Amino acid sequence: MPVQAQQGIASPRTSAGLGGLAPALILIGLFFVVPVLALLLRSVTDPVAGLQNYAALLGDGTYARVFFNTFLVAFVVTIVTVLVAFPVAWMLAIMPPALASLLFSIIILSMWTNLLTRTYAWMVLLQRTGVINRALMSVGIIDQPLPLINNLTGVTIGMVYIMLPFMILPLVGTLRAIDPMTLRAAALCGASPFAAFLRILLPLSLPGIAAGGLMVFVMSLGYFVTPALLGGTSNMMLAEMIAQMIQSLLNWGLGSAAAFILLVVTMALYALQLRLVGNSRATGAA
After folding, report:
1. For residues 108 and 113, what is the distance between their CA atoms, to the nearest angstrom?
2. By the 8 A CB rule, do 230 and 149 touch?
3. Of the residues 88, 203, 205, 227, which has the maximum number of CB atoms within 10 A of its CB?
4. Domain that holds residue 269
5. Quick check: 68 and 237 in contact, CB under 8 A?
C-alpha cells in the first residue's frame, strides 16, 4: 500500500514535469525536427523520388573533392587552433586575475567584431602587396612575396584567428580546475617539465581540448564567408557548394542532400565525442 501511495503521488508530479517541458519540446520540434525532416524529404524527392542525389554526391569526383577539401580544412584548422590556443589558455589560467580578466576581455571583444570585416582585414594583410609580405621583404627574410591568399594557407590563417576564442574558452575553464599542487608534486618526484606536461597536464586538459576541438571542427565544416574570400574557387568547401547549388543552380535536391550529409556527419562526431569523453571520465573515476 505505501508503495502504491507513493506511485500515486509521483504520477501527478511526472505529468506536471512533462507539461512544463511542452513549450521547449514544441520549439525544438518546430525549429529543428521539422526543418530537418523537410530537408531530408526534399533530398529524396527533388527532382524525382529516389536516392539519385546522394548517389551523385558520393559518386562524382568533383563533389568528392569538395568533401575531401572540407574535411581537410576543418582538420588542419582544428589542429592549428589547439596548438595556438593551449599556451594562451594556460597563460590566462596561471596569470594574476586582474591581468587575465583584461586579456580575456580582449579575446571576447574579437568575437563581437563583424566577421566580414575581420575577413577583409586578413585579405589586406595576406595579399602579395600586403603588410605581411612587405614586412618580410623589408627585413630581407624573403625575396618574393609569399602566396598567402587564395589557398589553404590563407583559409587556415583566417579561420584559426576566428576560431581561437571558441577553443580558448573551454580550455581556460578546464585548466583553471586543475590543482596546481598536482604539478608541484610531479616536480618534487623528479618529473621534468615536459614529462609533467605530457603525463599530467595534457591528460587532465583533454575534456577541454575535446569540447573546444569538436566545436571548432564542426563550425569549420559549415563555414562559408572566410573560405570563400580567402580560399578562392580552387579551395571550395561544402557550405559554398551548397550555396551555389541552391542560389545559382536552383538544384534544391542536390543541395539538400549535401546539407543532410553534413548534418549527419556533424551529429556522428558529436556522439563520438560524448562517448569518448564519457568513457575517459568513467575510467578516471574507476
Report:
1. 9
2. yes
3. 227
4. 61-285
5. no
> 54 to each of 124, 192, 195, 260, 269, how far by Cα in Å?
39, 53, 48, 10, 20
> What phi and psi values does residue 145 have, to the nearest 5 degrees?
-60, 140
Tally the domains of the chain.
2
How many whole angstroms separate alpha carbon 171 and alpha carbon 179?
Answer: 15
Residue that has been written with the C-alpha cell 568575437 in this structure: 111
What is the spatial distance between Cα 38 and Cα 36, in angstroms, rounded to a whole number? Answer: 5
At 233, which CATH number?
1.10.3720.10
Q: What is the CB-side half-sphere exposure of residue 43 using CA atoms within 13 A?
A: 23
pLDDT in tens, 19-62: 677 888 888 888 888 888 888 888 888 877 888 888 888 877 78
Q: What global pTM score does this model have?
A: 0.80
Residues of the chain with pLDDT under 50: 1, 3-10, 282-286
